[in-house]
Amino acid sequence: MKKLVVIGCLILIIKPVNAQSDSLSLMQCLSAAQNYAAINNQLEIFSEVTRLKIANANTSYLPGISAFGKAWYQSDAITVMGENGPVIEVDPFQYNAGVEALQKLYDGGLTKRKKDFELASLEVEHGKIETELYQLNSLITDLFFSSIFLKKNIEIIQLKAKLLSQRLKEMESAYTGGIIKRNDLEKITTELLITQQHILEIEKQRQQVIVSLALYTGLEVNSGTNFSVSDIPILASSGNRPEYSYFDAETQRIESLANLQKAKNLPFLAAYGQAGYSYPGLNFFENEPDYYYIVGVKLSWTLFDWKQNKRETQVLLKQREIIETNRTDFERKMSIALTQKLIEQKKLIDIIEIDEELINQLVAISRGSETALLNGVITSTDYLEDLNSEIKARLDRETHKIELQKSNIQYRLLEGIDPEIFIIN
User: Fold this and answer.
1) Separation between Cα atoms, residue 209 and residue 219, nearest integer Å
2) What is the pLDDT of residues 213-245, one digit of tens each?
3) Domain boundaries in the chain?
4) DSSP per residue over 145-158, as a string?
5) What is the architecture of the domain spanning 2-65+114-267+308-422?
6) Which of 73, 197, 207, 377 gives 20 to 30 Å between its CA and that of 225?
């Protein structure tokens, strides 16, 4: 009798899983995880880096000003001889100091193509981040459905504990009347304790899942939170996987880099000016230090680079081929994964239909075993075998239902969902 009291107390201690009315949908979890992910900070960082690089590129339109100075001694210098000896003799020790300005007039579009390349590189980084964020959906979906699955397990095993508790009360009377043996009563008591222990283990597992979900989403989630799948229909497939945008961005970056390579071999025209103080001055016949200035234009143009630019272009073409190969491989993997999900869903639908029939049969058998046990016709071992078969069938059915819902979501995530649904106003 003391064992019965202990069992009853344990049942009361277990908190009902739906003790709290707070509800959390899959859509809320996915949106929160997207917005809470630390990698989002990199978007702003990459944007700022690109802004700084473009600002640096824009300075090439401004005049460049630099100072210079040098002094030297040369082994020979200009000497003009006359009848009576040197008329002009330039000092071999000389120096020159001043400032120089350079204003770009034409660079073949090099600056613009540099900026285009930086913007294309930014899109590639954005594509990487969006792809990583999208992959987070699968993890959140797993955690979300794991919580639902464990909750269902707890509910069904609690039902088993309730049935065992009822049997104990009925068997206590049967034992008192000498219908059943003490051993049968103790086996049911032991099974109830094991079931209670199982409930506590599953609750601990679910708590771990919930903590993980809270850490990934930043939401306040607890064991009383009700996880709802009512918003699943809004996860309509759009075929818009972020990987495709990433492949496009990589291709565009390669094209921008190819354009940049071409611009490096185009003419460069600039105006320049120089002013300073030197010894001797520009008129070296005076052989005196003097101020001076020079203005003019200069042109540079690489006419022959030993086919270096051509080879660099060929490298870029190969890199583009690699990108297209990766795109084709990704599309093939997605096609295989989608086909497998459709097969999985059809299989689960068929299995669930059989689950319903199986449960009806096992419930009838289990109820018959209850009566037989109380009448001393069968042992508690026989009854527990039938009861466990019923409980297992119930667990299997709920597992298959949850797997079907999860498979449906995974199918839509594989196809690609509209990223706008992740925006929280």
Assistant:
1) 13
2) 999 999 998 888 888 876 555 555 666 899 999
3) 2-65+114-267+308-422
4) HHHHHHHHHHHHHH
5) Up-down Bundle (1.20)
6) 197
